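Customer escalation, tier 2.

The customer says the design service returned an amino acid string that "doesn't look like it belongs to this structure." They asked us to rerun it and document both sides in this ticket. The original structure tokens are below, unchanged.
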């Protein structure tokens, strides 16, 4: 009987009640009992019954022995010191058989009543005790169910919310300790391809993750065996269980229950979770642990896959970055040898006049230069380095320039080129050079992939707020399976006709990227091999200028006054070719330098009007040379023109900020050279 139950009984009956231990010492006394013995309730606790009566210890012990032999109430007598006459005493043994819980309940009637009333009272006491026990058990079960429900909920939230595997697992073991009553809990993970479990989380009386159990081989100790056998290990008899390795520790810490579960995903072990408890683990607790083991295993696997995907994405990003950097460097390196070749051809043409051999060589050099430009442009776009120089332009002029550019290719293949444009002038906000590049690419492709003597048509029409420019041919067409890939970088259908024309498979990729930068769209259609191809570019229209007449800009003339020019290039051949070319167009006073320091020395001695300066110089690079020259008042009027293979927007911006007056990208045509020289000298004058 608990103290709470005794208090309830004492308030239910009018008689004196005493609760004694097996040695006859008073545990609890009712108020009436204290009054009967002339004491207060607190002073009675812990005193032997013999201290309060005239009875001998032997008489009292005999009465208690009768209680132990009988399962019924035993009637006897007791003689309180403060009473004249003895009192009847009814005694009963409670919790029979439990040495740690046996007690004697004594009832001393205040008035003389029948023994049967005491029997009835004891029956009620038993009933009330059983009811209290049932309620206690129900309360404990409800509390356990609540804790288990909260445990499952909190583990689920943890698996969904925590960002890292370590934080997720640490929170899970903390929940095992707080909700399941564990002394301590741990989780090990097993990396792919490894034979060693690694301790990732620990909570309870041990929170450290180092020591002898931080790494456990599969099959070693109880944790390793759980992993190797892929079966749980459960016991409520830790002390004495041969599978629990450290028995001395288990006794010292008072461990009773242990539960270890393998963490499995598709039959593969990803870890082990385990918990020790100082009390027996109920069936409900074990089921709860079993149910979350699968969720924790899936959480570990999801985190592993996410980390692997992140690593792969970063690897791909770095590889893509290296590829783009390589393409940019390749394009730059190809431009350097192209520069003297192109300049040399221009020089031969000026010296000997036009001939078929020079014309063919010049066409091939121009083709190679376009390939290099395409390669570099794709690299810039992929790295986000392309910046449009948008202005209000007339589409007719762009079409005219593109057609002029590709006309030699059309004539070479004996194609019929038809151009159909809108009767009204069409205006766009666009980068004139980039848009011409788009149309030139489409027309060049049409010429390449159409058999000799074919037909190519460029048409233009407006539709709502857009203009549609289409290039259609009756060439080899495109297989339906390849159409979805046609705009991908380096994608090339097996169209043997064009192999002799060359190409890198980046033209349409460049077209799509440039059109998208103009807020437009591009589509391609083909009915199949031999049925031709049609590519359509859609671009947003712009309002025409207020005074949009038909007057076309007049071509510029390039007057080259007498001047001194310094050419600085680490390629001696390129520098010599450029000197000869400048001489052919009327420049008579030219000096050469081939590195940064000698460029500054030559400039100080020669006092040039114009300096063509390569950026990639030894000693001092072109930017450093320009900075030093601009810092010297002697060269305030000197024009600096960058002549380099570096042609990104960033390169142009940097050269302008340092003090260059113009920026030319190799290989430079004779027209570009004359225009740059004329503009610089005329602006100076």
């Amino acid at each position: 009987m608990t103290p709470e139950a005794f208090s309830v009984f004492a308030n239910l009956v009018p008689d004196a009640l005493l609760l004694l231990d097996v040695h006859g010492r008073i545990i609890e006394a009712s108020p009436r009992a204290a009054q009967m013995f002339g004491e207060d309730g607190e002073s009675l606790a812990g005193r032997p019954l013999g201290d309060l009566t005239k009875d001998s210890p032997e008489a009292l012990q005999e009465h208690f022995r009768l209680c132990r032999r009988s399962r019924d109430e035993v009637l006897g007598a007791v003689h309180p010191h403060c009473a004249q006459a003895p009192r009847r005493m009814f005694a009963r043994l409670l919790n029979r058989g439990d040495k740690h819980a046996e007690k004697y309940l004594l009832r001393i009637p205040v008035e003389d009543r029948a023994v049967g009333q005491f029997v009835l009272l004891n029956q009620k006491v038993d009933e009330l005790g059983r009811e209290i026990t049932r309620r206690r058990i129900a309360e404990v079960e409800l509390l356990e169910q609540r804790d288990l429900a909260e445990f499952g909920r909190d583990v689920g939230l943890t698996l969904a919310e925590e960002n890292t595997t370590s934080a997720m697992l640490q929170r899970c073991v903390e929940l095992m300790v707080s909700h399941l009553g564990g002394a301590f809990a741990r989780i090990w993970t097993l990396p792919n391809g490894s034979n060693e479990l690694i301790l990732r989380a620990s909570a309870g009386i041990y929170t450290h993750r180092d020591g002898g159990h931080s790494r456990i081989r599969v099959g070693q100790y109880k944790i390793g065996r759980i992993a190797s056998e892929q079966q749980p290990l459960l016991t409520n008899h830790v002390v004495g269980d041969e599978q629990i390795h450290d028995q001395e520790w288990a006794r010292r810490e008072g461990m009773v229950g242990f539960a270890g579960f393998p963490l499995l995903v598709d039959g593969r072990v990803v870890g082990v979770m385990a918990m020790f408890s100082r009390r027996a683990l109920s069936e409900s607790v074990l089921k709860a642990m079993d149910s979350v083991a699968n969720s924790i295993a899936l959480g570990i696997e999801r985190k592993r896959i996410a980390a692997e995907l992140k690593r792969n994405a970063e690897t791909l990003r770095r590889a893509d970055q290296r590829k783009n950097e390589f393409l940019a460097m390749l394009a730059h390196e190809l431009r350097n040898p192209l520069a003297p070749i192109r300049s040399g051809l221009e020089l031969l043409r000026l010296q000997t006049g036009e001939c078929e051999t020079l014309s063919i060589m010049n066409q091939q050099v121009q083709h190679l230069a376009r390939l290099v430009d395409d390669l570099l442009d794709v690299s810039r776009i992929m790295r986000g380095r392309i910046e449009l120089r948008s202005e209000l332009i007339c589409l007719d002029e762009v079409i005219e320039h593109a057609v002029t550019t590709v006309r030699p290719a059309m004539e070479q293949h004996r194609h019929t080129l038809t151009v159909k444009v809108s009767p009204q002038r069409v205006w766009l906000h666009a980068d004139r050079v980039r848009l011409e590049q788009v149309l030139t690419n489409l027309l060049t492709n049409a010429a390449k992939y159409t058999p000799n003597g074919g037909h190519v048509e460029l048409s233009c029409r407006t539709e709502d707020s857009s203009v549609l420019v289409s290039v259609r041919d009756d060439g080899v067409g495109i297989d339906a399976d390849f159409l979805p890939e046609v705009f991908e970088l380096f994608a090339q259908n097996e169209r043997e006709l064009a192999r002799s024309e060359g190409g890198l498979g980046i033209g349409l990729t460049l077209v799509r990227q440039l059109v998208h930068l103009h807020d437009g769209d591009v589509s391609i259609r083909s009915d199949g091999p031999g049925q031709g191809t049609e590519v359509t570019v859609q671009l947003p229209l712009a309002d025409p200028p207020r005074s949009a007449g038909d007057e076309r800009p007049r071509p510029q003339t390039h007057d080259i006054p007498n001047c001194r020019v310094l050419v600085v290039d680490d390629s001696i051949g390129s520098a010599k070719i450029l000197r000869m070319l400048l001489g052919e167009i009327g420049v008579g006073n030219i000096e050469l330098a081939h590195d940064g320091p000698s460029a500054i020395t030559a400039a100080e001695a020669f006092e040039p009007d114009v300096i063509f300066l390569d950026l990639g110089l030894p000693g001092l690079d072109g930017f450093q040379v320009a900075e030093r020259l601009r810092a010297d008042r002697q060269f305030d009027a000197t024009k600096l023109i960058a002549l380099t293979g570096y042609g990104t927007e960033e390169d142009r911006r940097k050269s302008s900020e340092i003090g260059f007056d113009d920026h030319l990208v190799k290989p430079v045509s004779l027209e570009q050279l004359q225009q740059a020289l004329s503009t610089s000298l005329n602006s100076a004058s």
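Tier 2 assessment: The sequence is consistent with the input. The two ends are 118 Å apart (CA to CA). The chain has four domains: 3-134, 162-281, 389-540, 564-684. Sent an explanation to the customer and offered a walkthrough call.
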